[in-house]
Amino acid sequence: MKHPLIGPSILSADFACLGREVRAVLRGGADYIHVDVMDGHFVPNLSMGPAICAAVRRAAPRAWIDVHLMVTQPAEFVDSFIDSGANHISVHIETVSKPAALLRKIQSRGATAGIAIKPETPWNSVASLFNLADLFLVMSVHPGFSGQKFLASALPKVRAIRSRISAAQRVELDGGVNPSNAAACIAAGCDALVSASAIFASDNYARVITQLRGGRAR
């Protein structure tokens, strides 16, 4: 908890050399690997499945893999992603009728569990999970595509959640995070920052990761 954790999202990685990309960001100082999973229903895009998670695990056996399920039926995929090497799974509050039960299932499998909210979803929609979730994921773009503009409206949600949970629980911000807005994210209470294009579109992964962690602009 001494510094914010940085999780590069492989949504913006070069899939032709995914293993090399994963190892490169880890060498550059990344704390974990973020895997964005989309089903084309909950969000208007289609992306990675358990096989990609398993490929990341093979490429980096000791890496912490953070899976973000942007899918309409997350309960159907929890076991397959954990079996493929996921250490953490976040599901969206908008997609589950019994979120507490699903978080407990994830935790019972030995993974940590997170609850995520989209930009239009109020922070208090997850209030009933403040004593259960290991992580609260606040979206700072409309989920579906990398490279979108950061929505500062996410920061008041971060502050509200951070003030109501313990120091052992994390608040993760995902979407449009870059060295120019990292300081504001950290000041609001984020201790885990997901970044996709800001890292993978750069020519120096280590430099950008260092800038994100320190809240310093380029």
Topology, pairings included?
Elements lengths: L4 E4 L9 H10 L5 E6 L11 H10 L5 E6 L7 H6 L4 E5 L6 H10 L3 E6 L17 E5 L14 H9 L7 E5 L7 H7 L3 E4 L1 H4 L4 H10 L4
Parallel strand pairs: 1-8, 2-3, 3-4, 4-5, 5-6, 6-7, 7-8
Helix pairs in contact: 1-2
Principal-axes geometry comes out as: globular
Tell me the fraction of residues in β-strands, as a range. Answer: 15-25%
**What would you say the CATH architecture is?**
Alpha-Beta Barrel
CATH topology: TIM Barrel
| Count of distinct strands | 8
Gyration radius from CA atoms, angstroms: 16 Å
Q: Alpha-carbon distance between the termini?
A: 24 Å
Tell me, what is the CATH class?
Answer: Alpha Beta
Mean pLDDT: 95
- Give the quaternary arrangement of the chains: single chain
Model regions low in confidence, pLDDT < 50 over at least 5 residues: none
Please provide a written account of the structure.
The protein is an alpha/beta fold. It has one domain: TIM Barrel. Helix content is 30%, strand content 19%. It contains eight helices and eight strands; from the N terminus they run βαβαβαβαββαβαβαα. It has helices at 18-27, 50-59, 78-83, 99-108, 154-162, 182-188, 197-200, 205-214, and strands spanning 5-8, 33-38, 65-70, 88-92, 112-117, 135-139, 170-174, 192-195. The chain has an eight-stranded parallel sheet. Strand 4, helix 4 (99-108) and strand 5 (112-117) form a beta-alpha-beta unit. Helix 1 packs across helix 2. The longest helix has 10 residues, at 18-27. The protein starts with a strand and ends with a helix.
